Amino acid sequence: MKMISVLLVCCFILSCSSTKVHLYTRYLSTEQTLGVTNDLEALGFDVVDNTLVFPDDIAQSTLLYSPFIEGENSVNFLIDSLEQSGWIIADVKPIFAGNHYYTKNSVGLLLLPDGLMKNDQVTAQDLANEYESKKCENSIKLSLKSDATYQFLYSNKHDNENEQLKGNWQITSYPYIELTSSNKAWRFYYEIHKSIDSDVVGKIELIELKPVDDQYTLPVCSYVYGIRA
User: Fold this and answer.
1) Residue 152 forms beta bridges with which residues?
2) Model-level pTM?
3) Domain 124-228 sits in CATH 3.30.505
4) How many whole angstroms separate alpha carbon 45 and alpha carbon 19?
5) Tens of pLDDT, residues 164-189
């Protein structure tokens, strides 16, 4: 009986060997990402990670799958394996969600750790983007990086090495973020705004950072990042 069980597992692994799993790591720690990746690769899945934003209609751990996935039990086998590792898949959807879709022999795995829920607030992970200045006399880019550092970059100036233009950022009390210069001499505060805009192509999710005060040493600019919904 034990030999039969081993053979069944081997058959599952063989059927999964060419299945590609697109693992969304935006809300996962480095350790969680490594753990899930190692578990899936050990089962024969081909894992490709990304840091894409979740579609708006997904607020819990979800599996998106292609109807052309090889092996009729591959999806169930994947879900069972994840549950054994402590990841409960709350929803399973075919083909696509939002502008995320999967064809041929592939699935999308969107994981949210326990206690983390997507809602109208913008998480620190979602704030880490490249922003363009808005309503500003200067053309400036603001980069909020996932390692909690920031950088302002002027497109038409040569003083981009000024200490106040680099440093660290954090969410102090939502919806406010604080940028602290690398020499600790300057602090800048912005308010986070999330909205939906649209054009001839479709809807665009916008994150806008609006200055809380005059800032004095920096132009009083808003910064905007947009992604198609």
Assistant:
1) 142
2) 0.54
3) no
4) 6
5) 899 999 998 878 899 999 988 889 99
